Amino acid sequence: MAIDFPAEISALRTTYASIREVSDLEGLRTELADLNEQAAAPDLWDDPETAQGVTSRLSYVQAELERIEKMGGRIDDLEVLVELAEAEGDADSVTEAEEELEAIKGSLEELEIRTLLSGEYDAREALVTIRSEAGGVDAADFAQMLMRMYLRWAERKHFKTELYDTSYAEEAGIKSATFKVAAPYAYGTLSVEQGTHRLVRISPFDNQGRRQTSFAGVEVLPVVAETDHIEIPENDVRVDVYRSSGPGGQSVNTTDSAVRLTHLPTGIVVTCQNEKSQLQNKAAAMRVLQAKLLEKARQDRQAELDALKGEDSGSWGNQMRSYVLQPYKMVKDLRTNFEVGNTDGVFDGEIDSFLDAGIRWRKQREG
Protein backbone atom coordinates (compact mmCIF):
# COMPACT_ATOMS: atom_id res chain seq x y z
CA MET A 1 0.00 0.00 0.00
CA ALA A 2 1.43 3.35 -1.12
CA ILE A 3 2.41 5.83 1.55
CA ASP A 4 0.35 9.03 1.70
CA PHE A 5 3.38 11.34 1.82
CA PRO A 6 1.45 14.66 2.09
CA ALA A 7 -0.48 13.38 5.13
CA GLU A 8 2.65 11.91 6.71
CA ILE A 9 4.67 15.11 6.19
CA SER A 10 1.81 17.20 7.59
CA ALA A 11 1.79 14.98 10.71
CA LEU A 12 5.58 15.41 11.03
CA ARG A 13 5.22 19.20 10.91
CA THR A 14 2.50 19.13 13.57
CA THR A 15 4.64 17.01 15.90
CA TYR A 16 7.70 19.16 15.25
CA ALA A 17 5.75 22.36 15.99
CA SER A 18 4.56 20.96 19.33
CA ILE A 19 8.13 19.94 20.24
CA ARG A 20 9.44 23.43 19.47
CA GLU A 21 6.63 24.94 21.51
CA VAL A 22 7.53 23.04 24.69
CA SER A 23 11.32 23.17 24.21
CA ASP A 24 13.01 26.16 25.81
CA LEU A 25 15.03 27.10 22.71
CA GLU A 26 15.59 30.66 23.90
CA GLY A 27 16.85 29.36 27.23
CA LEU A 28 19.23 26.97 25.44
CA ARG A 29 20.58 29.81 23.27
CA THR A 30 21.16 31.97 26.35
CA GLU A 31 22.91 29.10 28.12
CA LEU A 32 25.02 28.42 25.02
CA ALA A 33 26.22 32.02 24.93
CA ASP A 34 27.10 31.88 28.63
CA LEU A 35 28.96 28.58 28.24
CA ASN A 36 30.90 29.88 25.23
CA GLU A 37 31.98 32.83 27.37
CA GLN A 38 33.09 30.51 30.19
CA ALA A 39 34.93 28.23 27.76
CA ALA A 40 36.86 31.19 26.35
CA ALA A 41 38.17 32.24 29.78
CA PRO A 42 42.01 31.96 29.86
CA ASP A 43 42.01 30.44 33.36
CA LEU A 44 39.34 27.81 32.59
CA TRP A 45 41.69 24.82 32.92
CA ASP A 46 43.13 25.99 36.23
CA ASP A 47 40.32 23.86 37.67
CA PRO A 48 40.18 20.75 35.40
CA GLU A 49 37.01 19.33 36.97
CA THR A 50 35.05 22.56 36.45
CA ALA A 51 36.51 22.93 32.95
CA GLN A 52 35.42 19.42 32.02
CA GLY A 53 31.91 20.18 33.26
CA VAL A 54 31.74 23.39 31.21
CA THR A 55 33.01 21.81 27.98
CA SER A 56 30.78 18.75 28.41
CA ARG A 57 27.69 20.90 28.97
CA LEU A 58 28.68 23.16 26.06
CA SER A 59 28.91 20.17 23.74
CA TYR A 60 25.53 18.88 24.90
CA VAL A 61 23.69 22.22 24.55
CA GLN A 62 25.13 22.77 21.06
CA ALA A 63 24.06 19.28 19.97
CA GLU A 64 20.58 19.67 21.49
CA LEU A 65 19.96 22.99 19.74
CA GLU A 66 21.19 21.60 16.42
CA ARG A 67 19.01 18.48 16.74
CA ILE A 68 15.87 20.55 17.25
CA GLU A 69 16.60 23.33 14.78
CA LYS A 70 17.82 21.06 11.95
CA MET A 71 14.72 18.88 12.15
CA GLY A 72 12.66 21.46 10.26
CA GLY A 73 15.20 21.37 7.44
CA ARG A 74 15.05 17.58 7.28
CA ILE A 75 11.26 17.70 6.88
CA ASP A 76 11.59 20.34 4.12
CA ASP A 77 14.21 18.23 2.33
CA LEU A 78 11.96 15.18 2.56
CA GLU A 79 9.09 17.10 0.96
CA VAL A 80 11.35 18.18 -1.95
CA LEU A 81 12.63 14.60 -2.38
CA VAL A 82 9.06 13.27 -2.56
CA GLU A 83 8.04 15.89 -5.13
CA LEU A 84 11.04 15.10 -7.36
CA ALA A 85 10.58 11.34 -6.99
CA GLU A 86 6.91 11.50 -7.96
CA ALA A 87 7.51 13.96 -10.81
CA GLU A 88 10.20 11.75 -12.36
CA GLY A 89 8.64 8.41 -11.41
CA ASP A 90 11.92 7.41 -9.73
CA ALA A 91 11.33 4.25 -7.67
CA ASP A 92 14.75 4.46 -5.97
CA SER A 93 14.03 8.00 -4.79
CA VAL A 94 10.63 6.91 -3.48
CA THR A 95 12.34 4.16 -1.48
CA GLU A 96 14.86 6.70 -0.18
CA ALA A 97 11.98 8.99 0.84
CA GLU A 98 10.25 6.14 2.67
CA GLU A 99 13.44 5.39 4.61
CA GLU A 100 13.98 9.06 5.49
CA LEU A 101 10.35 9.35 6.59
CA GLU A 102 10.87 6.51 9.10
CA ALA A 103 14.18 8.01 10.25
CA ILE A 104 12.56 11.41 10.89
CA LYS A 105 9.70 9.75 12.78
CA GLY A 106 12.25 8.04 15.03
CA SER A 107 14.18 11.28 15.61
CA LEU A 108 10.99 13.20 16.41
CA GLU A 109 9.93 10.48 18.86
CA GLU A 110 13.29 10.83 20.66
CA LEU A 111 12.83 14.61 20.84
CA GLU A 112 9.25 14.20 22.03
CA ILE A 113 10.33 11.80 24.80
CA ARG A 114 12.97 14.32 25.89
CA THR A 115 10.26 16.99 26.36
CA LEU A 116 8.55 14.64 28.85
CA LEU A 117 11.63 14.63 31.09
CA SER A 118 10.86 17.72 33.12
CA GLY A 119 11.35 16.43 36.67
CA GLU A 120 13.57 18.21 39.18
CA TYR A 121 16.56 15.94 38.56
CA ASP A 122 15.70 14.43 35.16
CA ALA A 123 18.54 16.22 33.35
CA ARG A 124 21.16 14.68 35.67
CA GLU A 125 23.52 11.80 35.10
CA ALA A 126 22.45 8.54 36.75
CA LEU A 127 23.77 6.22 39.45
CA VAL A 128 22.43 2.70 38.93
CA THR A 129 22.56 0.00 41.61
CA ILE A 130 21.53 -3.58 40.88
CA ARG A 131 21.02 -6.17 43.65
CA SER A 132 20.20 -9.86 43.51
CA GLU A 133 17.08 -10.70 45.50
CA ALA A 134 15.12 -13.95 45.96
CA GLY A 135 16.32 -16.88 43.90
CA GLY A 136 19.80 -17.80 45.12
CA VAL A 137 22.48 -18.28 42.48
CA ASP A 138 19.94 -17.71 39.67
CA ALA A 139 19.15 -14.28 41.14
CA ALA A 140 22.84 -13.40 41.31
CA ASP A 141 23.27 -14.48 37.68
CA PHE A 142 20.16 -12.48 36.72
CA ALA A 143 21.55 -9.37 38.45
CA GLN A 144 24.70 -9.68 36.35
CA MET A 145 22.56 -10.10 33.19
CA LEU A 146 20.75 -6.86 34.05
CA MET A 147 24.01 -5.03 34.68
CA ARG A 148 25.29 -6.11 31.27
CA MET A 149 21.96 -5.07 29.69
CA TYR A 150 22.25 -1.50 30.98
CA LEU A 151 25.95 -1.23 30.18
CA ARG A 152 25.29 -2.46 26.63
CA TRP A 153 22.46 0.08 26.30
CA ALA A 154 24.84 2.85 27.37
CA GLU A 155 27.52 1.54 25.00
CA ARG A 156 25.07 1.59 22.08
CA LYS A 157 24.31 5.23 22.93
CA HIS A 158 28.03 6.07 23.26
CA PHE A 159 27.41 7.09 26.88
CA LYS A 160 30.38 6.93 29.23
CA THR A 161 29.96 4.62 32.24
CA GLU A 162 31.99 4.30 35.43
CA LEU A 163 31.80 1.22 37.63
CA TYR A 164 32.01 2.09 41.33
CA ASP A 165 31.50 -1.20 43.10
CA THR A 166 30.88 -4.87 42.32
CA SER A 167 30.16 -7.48 44.99
CA TYR A 168 30.50 -10.92 43.41
CA ALA A 169 28.43 -13.92 44.49
CA GLU A 170 30.20 -17.12 45.52
CA GLU A 171 29.09 -19.43 42.69
CA ALA A 172 28.15 -17.11 39.82
CA GLY A 173 26.85 -13.62 39.14
CA ILE A 174 26.85 -10.66 41.49
CA LYS A 175 25.30 -9.76 44.82
CA SER A 176 25.26 -6.08 43.84
CA ALA A 177 26.90 -3.49 41.59
CA THR A 178 26.83 0.30 41.32
CA PHE A 179 27.81 2.27 38.24
CA LYS A 180 27.37 5.76 36.82
CA VAL A 181 25.93 6.58 33.41
CA ALA A 182 27.50 9.91 32.46
CA ALA A 183 25.07 11.42 29.98
CA PRO A 184 22.55 14.28 30.12
CA TYR A 185 19.05 13.06 31.09
CA ALA A 186 20.39 9.62 32.02
CA TYR A 187 18.55 9.83 35.35
CA GLY A 188 15.24 10.93 33.83
CA THR A 189 15.48 8.16 31.25
CA LEU A 190 16.66 5.29 33.44
CA SER A 191 14.61 6.16 36.53
CA VAL A 192 11.63 4.31 35.00
CA GLU A 193 13.72 1.12 35.36
CA GLN A 194 13.62 1.32 39.15
CA GLY A 195 11.89 -1.59 40.83
CA THR A 196 11.89 -5.37 40.95
CA HIS A 197 12.70 -7.36 37.80
CA ARG A 198 11.64 -11.02 37.51
CA LEU A 199 13.26 -13.80 35.46
CA VAL A 200 11.65 -17.15 34.58
CA ARG A 201 13.86 -19.77 32.90
CA ILE A 202 15.26 -23.28 33.03
CA SER A 203 18.03 -22.81 35.57
CA PRO A 204 21.52 -23.49 34.21
CA PHE A 205 22.51 -24.14 37.84
CA ASP A 206 19.89 -26.84 38.51
CA ASN A 207 21.13 -30.32 37.59
CA GLN A 208 17.50 -31.49 37.26
CA GLY A 209 16.76 -28.82 34.64
CA ARG A 210 13.82 -27.32 36.51
CA ARG A 211 12.23 -23.99 35.75
CA GLN A 212 13.19 -21.32 38.27
CA THR A 213 11.92 -17.84 39.09
CA SER A 214 14.42 -15.30 40.39
CA PHE A 215 14.37 -11.60 41.21
CA ALA A 216 16.73 -8.63 41.05
CA GLY A 217 16.19 -5.04 42.22
CA VAL A 218 17.21 -1.90 40.32
CA GLU A 219 17.73 1.46 42.03
CA VAL A 220 18.39 4.64 40.01
CA LEU A 221 19.58 7.90 41.61
CA PRO A 222 20.49 11.32 40.21
CA VAL A 223 24.15 12.26 40.43
CA VAL A 224 24.69 15.06 42.93
CA ALA A 225 25.54 18.49 41.51
CA GLU A 226 27.65 21.18 43.17
CA THR A 227 24.51 23.27 43.68
CA ASP A 228 22.81 20.61 45.83
CA HIS A 229 24.68 21.49 49.05
CA ILE A 230 24.44 18.05 50.64
CA GLU A 231 26.26 18.63 53.92
CA ILE A 232 27.50 15.47 55.65
CA PRO A 233 29.19 16.16 59.00
CA GLU A 234 32.33 14.06 59.43
CA ASN A 235 31.02 12.62 62.71
CA ASP A 236 27.94 11.28 60.89
CA VAL A 237 29.98 8.87 58.76
CA ARG A 238 31.86 5.75 59.82
CA VAL A 239 34.64 4.79 57.40
CA ASP A 240 35.78 1.16 57.15
CA VAL A 241 38.53 -0.02 54.80
CA TYR A 242 39.08 -3.57 53.60
CA ARG A 243 40.73 -5.53 50.82
CA SER A 244 38.80 -5.54 47.56
CA SER A 245 37.97 -8.91 46.04
CA GLY A 246 36.95 -10.42 42.76
CA PRO A 247 34.66 -13.34 41.77
CA GLY A 248 34.45 -16.13 44.32
CA GLY A 249 36.14 -14.05 46.99
CA GLN A 250 39.45 -13.98 45.13
CA SER A 251 41.63 -11.09 46.27
CA VAL A 252 42.34 -8.63 43.48
CA ASN A 253 44.22 -6.10 45.57
CA THR A 254 47.00 -6.61 48.07
CA THR A 255 46.19 -3.41 49.99
CA ASP A 256 43.16 -2.31 52.01
CA SER A 257 41.90 0.04 49.30
CA ALA A 258 38.17 -0.78 49.33
CA VAL A 259 36.00 1.62 51.35
CA ARG A 260 32.69 1.20 53.16
CA LEU A 261 30.84 4.31 54.37
CA THR A 262 28.04 4.05 56.93
CA HIS A 263 25.85 7.12 57.40
CA LEU A 264 25.01 6.79 61.09
CA PRO A 265 21.82 8.94 61.24
CA THR A 266 20.10 7.00 58.43
CA GLY A 267 21.94 3.66 58.42
CA ILE A 268 22.68 4.01 54.68
CA VAL A 269 25.75 1.94 53.71
CA VAL A 270 27.82 2.54 50.56
CA THR A 271 30.86 0.63 49.33
CA CYS A 272 33.37 1.28 46.56
CA GLN A 273 36.28 -0.94 45.54
CA ASN A 274 36.80 -0.45 41.83
CA GLU A 275 39.23 2.47 42.03
CA LYS A 276 42.97 1.85 42.54
CA SER A 277 43.47 3.82 45.74
CA GLN A 278 41.67 4.18 49.05
CA LEU A 279 41.32 7.94 48.51
CA GLN A 280 39.70 7.45 45.10
CA ASN A 281 37.33 4.82 46.47
CA LYS A 282 36.38 7.06 49.39
CA ALA A 283 35.66 9.99 47.06
CA ALA A 284 33.53 7.78 44.78
CA ALA A 285 31.67 6.28 47.75
CA MET A 286 30.99 9.77 49.11
CA ARG A 287 29.42 10.77 45.76
CA VAL A 288 27.11 7.75 45.94
CA LEU A 289 26.22 8.51 49.58
CA GLN A 290 25.40 12.11 48.66
CA ALA A 291 23.14 10.87 45.85
CA LYS A 292 21.33 8.51 48.23
CA LEU A 293 20.80 11.30 50.77
CA LEU A 294 19.57 13.62 48.02
CA GLU A 295 17.06 10.99 46.93
CA LYS A 296 15.98 10.37 50.54
CA ALA A 297 15.34 14.10 50.98
CA ARG A 298 13.27 14.11 47.76
CA GLN A 299 11.26 11.08 48.92
CA ASP A 300 10.66 12.68 52.32
CA ARG A 301 9.35 15.83 50.62
CA GLN A 302 7.12 13.73 48.35
CA ALA A 303 5.78 11.77 51.33
CA GLU A 304 4.85 15.04 53.05
CA LEU A 305 3.04 16.26 49.92
CA ASP A 306 1.21 12.94 49.54
CA ALA A 307 0.18 13.06 53.19
CA LEU A 308 -1.23 16.55 52.67
CA LYS A 309 -3.10 15.34 49.58
CA GLY A 310 -4.29 12.25 51.44
CA GLU A 311 -2.86 10.01 48.73
CA ASP A 312 -1.27 6.58 48.89
CA SER A 313 2.18 6.99 47.41
CA GLY A 314 2.88 3.28 47.10
CA SER A 315 5.99 2.37 45.15
CA TRP A 316 5.12 1.98 41.46
CA GLY A 317 8.44 0.31 40.81
CA ASN A 318 7.83 -3.07 42.52
CA GLN A 319 7.36 -6.01 40.16
CA MET A 320 7.83 -3.76 37.15
CA ARG A 321 9.01 -6.22 34.46
CA SER A 322 9.07 -9.94 33.69
CA TYR A 323 11.66 -11.68 31.53
CA VAL A 324 10.32 -15.11 30.51
CA LEU A 325 12.67 -17.50 28.70
CA GLN A 326 10.70 -20.72 29.32
CA PRO A 327 8.21 -22.11 28.18
CA TYR A 328 8.06 -19.18 25.71
CA LYS A 329 10.19 -16.08 25.18
CA MET A 330 8.81 -12.68 26.15
CA VAL A 331 9.79 -9.56 28.05
CA LYS A 332 6.79 -7.67 29.40
CA ASP A 333 6.52 -4.43 31.36
CA LEU A 334 3.84 -4.95 34.00
CA ARG A 335 2.99 -1.22 34.24
CA THR A 336 2.66 -0.30 30.56
CA ASN A 337 1.88 -3.81 29.20
CA PHE A 338 4.49 -3.19 26.50
CA GLU A 339 6.08 -6.50 25.48
CA VAL A 340 8.53 -7.95 22.96
CA GLY A 341 9.54 -11.49 22.02
CA ASN A 342 13.18 -10.74 21.25
CA THR A 343 14.60 -11.56 24.68
CA ASP A 344 18.17 -11.84 23.36
CA GLY A 345 17.96 -8.30 21.97
CA VAL A 346 16.66 -6.93 25.26
CA PHE A 347 19.46 -8.52 27.26
CA ASP A 348 21.88 -7.08 24.71
CA GLY A 349 20.72 -3.55 25.54
CA GLU A 350 17.79 -3.01 23.14
CA ILE A 351 15.54 -1.41 25.78
CA ASP A 352 14.66 1.97 24.23
CA SER A 353 11.07 0.92 23.54
CA PHE A 354 10.61 -0.05 27.20
CA LEU A 355 12.18 3.23 28.35
CA ASP A 356 9.95 5.30 26.04
CA ALA A 357 6.80 3.45 27.14
CA GLY A 358 7.80 3.86 30.80
CA ILE A 359 8.42 7.60 30.45
CA ARG A 360 5.05 8.13 28.72
CA TRP A 361 3.29 6.01 31.38
CA ARG A 362 4.89 8.01 34.20
CA LYS A 363 3.89 11.31 32.57
CA GLN A 364 0.27 10.16 32.28
CA ARG A 365 0.23 9.19 35.96
CA GLU A 366 1.61 12.57 36.94
CA GLY A 367 -1.21 14.10 35.19
TrEMBL record:
Location in the cell reads: Cytoplasm
**Keywords assigned by UniProt, alphabetized:** Coiled coil, Cytoplasm, Methylation, Protein biosynthesis
Domain Prokaryotic-type class I peptide chain release factors span(s) in chain numbering = 243-259
**UniProt PTM comment:** Methylated by PrmC. Methylation increases the termination efficiency of RF2.
GO CC term, one of those recorded: cytoplasm
Entry-annotated residues carrying N5-methylglutamine? Q250
Asked if Translocase is a keyword of the record, the answer is no
Matching Pfam families? PCRF (PF03462), RF-1 (PF00472)
Q: Does the keyword Glycoprotein apply?
A: no
Q: In this entry, which stretches build a coiled coil? A: 68-114
Supply the Gene3D superfamilies for this chain. Answer: 3.30.160.20, 3.30.70.1660, Release factor (1.20.58.410)
Q: Which InterPro entries match?
A: PCRF (IPR005139), Pep_chain_release_fac_I (IPR000352), Pep_chain_release_fac_I_sf (IPR045853), PrfB (IPR004374)
- MF GO annotations: translation release factor activity, codon specific
> What's this protein's family per the entry?
Belongs to the prokaryotic/mitochondrial release factor family.
Describe the task this protein carries out.
Peptide chain release factor 2 directs the termination of translation in response to the peptide chain termination codons UGA and UAA.
Name of this chain's protein = Peptide chain release factor 2
Write down the species. Answer: Kineococcus rhizosphaerae
**Annotated gene:** prfB
